[in-house]
Design brief:
Blueprint lengths: L2 E5 L3 H13 L3 E5 L2 H10 L4 E5 L7 H10 L5 E6 L4 H9 L4 E4 L4 H31 L7 H13 L6 E4 L6 H10 L8 E5 L8 H6 L16 H4 L4 E5 L6 H13 L1 E3 L6 E3 L3 E6 L3 H6 L5 H7 L2 E4 L10 H16 L5 E2 L1 H9 L5 H15 L3 E2 L1 H7 L5
Parallel strand pairs: 1-2, 1-3, 3-4, 4-5, 6-11, 6-12, 7-8, 8-11, 13-14
Antiparallel strand pairs: 9-10
Organism: Runella rosea
InterPro entries: AAA+_ATPase, AAA_lid_NorR, CheY-like_superfamily, P-loop_NTPase, Sig_transdc_resp-reg_receiver, Sigma_54_int, Sigma_54_int_dom_ATP-bd_2
Keywords: ATP-binding, Nucleotide-binding, Phosphoprotein
Amino acid sequence: MARILIVDDEKSIRAALRDILEYEGYEVEEAKDGEEGLNMILKNSYDVALCDIRMPKLEGLEVLLKAGEAGRSTQFIMVSAFGNVENAVEATKRGAYDFITKPPDLNRLLVSVRNAIEKSKLVAETVDLKKRIFKINEIVGESAPIKRVKDTIDRVAPTEARVLITGANGSGKEMVAKQIHEKSSRANKPLIEVNCAAIPSELIESELFGYEKGAFTGAVKQRIGKFEQADGGTLFLDEIGDMSLSAQAKVLRALQESKITRVGGDKEIKINVRVIAATNKDLKREIAEGGFREDLYHRLNVIPIHVPPLSERREDIVLLADKFLYDISQEYGGIPKTILPDAMQHLKSLPWTGNVRELRNVIERLVIMCGDEIMLDDVRLYASFGN
């Protein structure tokens, strides 16, 4: 049942609105002034607040503003006897869902309340989804090496510094990039990922910078590149060590000037992008061998983060395995299975050349193929696949 708070200093107005809304099946509470209304909003959860604009102690627009600053998702419908354009515009600018004049038209009021409740549900679902995504991208582990990684993420995420993430395949470099983005001020903007190793060298420039219609055979219409798609957000260049030298030169220019030019075009386009790069290669050796630009390396390597292989953080295997057991059971709609102690000890002793990615694959295989209790013989049998 939707909860509605009526904030108005006129008792008769509160009573009339309450009768209407309770008749429609809503749960209704009242506040006699703005100060009481704000306190109730901060302490409780309401889908909608019907809030008068002019009240003693705290005016309605101040209640709206302070509730927003506190992160409350309550949708405000401002109600006022002074139905001028200035009040409506100001209320909307401050985040009000709607503005209704007194005495309110009954049908208009009920439609507005229903729509505001729907928006409140959508906002709550979005917040919940973001929390679940953040949980999925959570870096699991309490070992000293992984604690250093998490500490660096917490320090660098709120800044605009570029980050170069290094580590073996499957160690979790992409997870680190996602955590940096999600903990940054750009979290509400896009995180655009580019796997430089998966794109042919002749296509990487058009993929990154886009192209104009007619730039080459097959370019039948203009295309926006990854840099423009990430404007205001974060661009994650995964496996940047595999990028061609010509593309590296253009990326360097984009980082230096915050501008790009589409393939086949001459117009400079301003961009506001934070770049995070990752590689499993030794870029210093690549520089020495002429495969990577030293100037680009120094542009990217403002904050280096090395993600340790699983072999250097074996004490985290228990935590990771438990997380994967839970996640996989959620995906398959079952109850999480249990790995017996001797089986877990054997998991910890394996080489894990594929790192965290390989561990997850093995846990998923065990969940599918084994009973409720995963035993040592199960691990010996199924964890040997692909090792």
